[in-house]
Amino acid sequence: xxxxxxxxxxxxxxxxxxxxxxxxxxxxxxxxxxxxxxxxxxxxxxxxxxxxxxxxxxxxxxxxxxxxxxxxxxxxxxxxxxxxxxxxxxxxxxxxxxxxxxxxxxxxxxxxxxxxxxxxxxxxxxxxxxxxxxxxxxxxxxxxxxxxxxxxxxxxxxxxxxxxxxxxxxxxxxxxxxxxxxxxxxxxxxxxxxxxxxxxxxxxxxxxxxxxxxxxxxxxxxxxxxxxxxxxxxxxxxxxxxxxxxxxxxxxxxxxxxxxxxxxxxxxxxxxxxxxxxxxxxxxxxxxxxxxxxxxxxxxxxxxxxxxxxxxxxxxxxxxxxxxxxxxxxxxxxxxxx
Length: 338
Ligand code: TXA
Ligand code: MG
Prior knowledge:
The protein is of the alpha/beta class. It is 30% helix and 18% strand. Threonylcarbamoyladenylate binds next to strand 6 and strand 7.
């Protein structure tokens, strides 16, 4: 299959691909998504095939506004509207009970569905023109880091999808925050661009699913099925070094072997001359770290490094999301610098 490259102006062509059951690479403010008509079970099935995604991992539905929630969801709690009012359009996915109209192909047979109203103007224009809810996982091959620009998505999906729309680099860079509103208290399933602190301002108490901060054991089942899979991982093993940035940089210097790769804050790049290196951004600029983290992980697959060491921000604010992605890429192989 030839994958059409579309510009941000070709909204009608993009919407037509969705309406006729095709697969579309679609820019969002978080990461690029692999979109299809969420009411067309056949089209949704092709998403799983293109990604090599396990069948038990449900997809989220993208809608143009909170008005659409009632078309697909029932028993919607007032908290959903309070969150929508404050954070939509934006990087927040809510887990709600779904109506029968949502195909099992989307929900993997669960009685809940993830709903998101994205902020990217091109994405919004395409969904509105298509007039259907768009089912879209991140646009990577299953297990690889999520794509944050068109070139990264084409690396995984060229020839496997009907088209891709260039919406520029993603402004957030990590996937949406997922909050489960079907339990009490509401539960954070995946940290993202909307922070835990922001959610608590609206919801009061919010539980944090254990899968956010540690590896799930053999018999354990995270509430977001996707959180159990090895994720975002480059081919080489990753070690995350926590602690104050200067101490962590020194720890890496002391423990690394010749040829090892490094993901470090900008201030410390000079310490690793001669090593394959990706800069995460200034240690104080966590939003920039979020924008760069997936590209940094992805870059090492084009090198022959045997091992990668990564500095990591504090797990507060959007740092919780950056730390989660790095820790998952490391299979939660984390060491603490003194
Ligand atoms: O920012 C994003 O959310 C991006 C862009 C494209 O919108 N999409 C994205 O989708 O990250 P995906 O499929 O890569 O991640 C969705 C996560 C998976 O871990 C999945 O298991 C979980 O959401 N999920 C989907 N439906 C769920 C449900 N009903 N209950 C619990 N978790 C669910
Ligand atoms: Mg994904």
